[in-house]
Amino acid sequence: MSLVELFILAVGLSMDAFAVSICKGLSMKKISFRHMALAGIWFGGFQGLMPLIGFFLGRFFADFVNSYAHWIAFGLLAFIGIQMIRESREEAEEVDANMDNKTMFLLAVATSIDALTVGITFAFLKVAIIPAVLLIGITTFVFSAAGVKIGSLFGTKYKSKSELVGGIVLILIGLKVLLEGLGIL
Q1: DSSP state of 93
Q2: In the chain, where are the structural domains located?
Q3: What does the alpha-carbon distance between residue 130 and residue 146 come to, in Å, rounded to a whole number?
Q4: 101-125 vs 69-89: helix crossing angle, rounded to 10
Q5: What is the pLDDT of residue 112?
Q6: pLDDT tens by residue, 7-44
Q7: Closest Cα to residue 111, out of 162, 158, 75, 58?
Q8: Per-residue pLDDT averaged across 151-175, rounded?
Q9: Beta carbons of 54 and 105 less than 8 angstroms apart
Q10: CATH fold for the domain made of 3-181
Q11: What is the separation of C-alpha 1 from the centre of its chain, rounded to a whole number of angstroms?
Q12: Cα dist. 6→11, 17, 108, 165, 166 in Å?
């Protein structure tokens, strides 16, 4: 997987956290750099940690399913992408201004479950995991911190669009992996 593809994947994965960060910013009367940094650290940290966990889980099973890896990667990425597209069509959930540890932990886990699954696909694709998780974590940090600021300025207007774009990106990357695995690309 090239650096460009990995960056596009990181952007797609960060869209859930970006959308929640926008809602956090919307719900606050006044935001500070601390609010932006907290969102970035929680969401970026978990978006980086979850693919690492998924990678080690996938490595455990990789030898058993290596000849089907491209199908598995495609299936997982397509599933995540479809879920994100579905979520983009649902009514917006209310997010309160609370940024305590418990609230942020739960939101960080909820928005990074898809990254766990992507980490499993990384094991099948033989991705260099450390640069990958660093790029995903840093990208999500930036998007989440910016999302809090954007939310305070613009509100939830772009939440569904960002989830839709993220879902489409993941499906396209999965399709590319499948076509490469089949020898078509």
Answers
A1: P
A2: 3-181
A3: 24
A4: 150
A5: 84
A6: 999 998 898 888 888 878 877 778 889 999 999 999 99
A7: 162
A8: 69
A9: no
A10: Growth Hormone; Chain: A; (1.20.1250)
A11: 17
A12: 9, 17, 21, 16, 13
What does the DSSP assignment read for 35-83? HHHHHHHHHHHHHHHHHHHHHHHHHHHHHHHGGGHHHHHHHHHHHHHHH
Q: For residues 184 and 87, what is the distance between their CA atoms, to the nearest angstrom?
A: 32
Q: What is the mean pLDDT of the chain?
A: 82
Tokens representing 142 are 């930036």
DSSP per residue, 111-144: HHHHHHHHHHHHHHHT--HHHHHHHHHHHHHHHH
**Residue 35 and residue 183 in contact, taking contact as beta carbons nearer than 8 Å:** no
Distances (CA, A) of 69 to 65, 100, 136, 149: 6, 40, 22, 40
Question: Is 70 exceeded by the pLDDT of residue 93?
Answer: no
Mean pLDDT of 152-173: 68
| Amino acid sitting at position 127 | V
Q: How far from the centroid of its chain's Cα atoms is residue 94's Cα?
A: 20
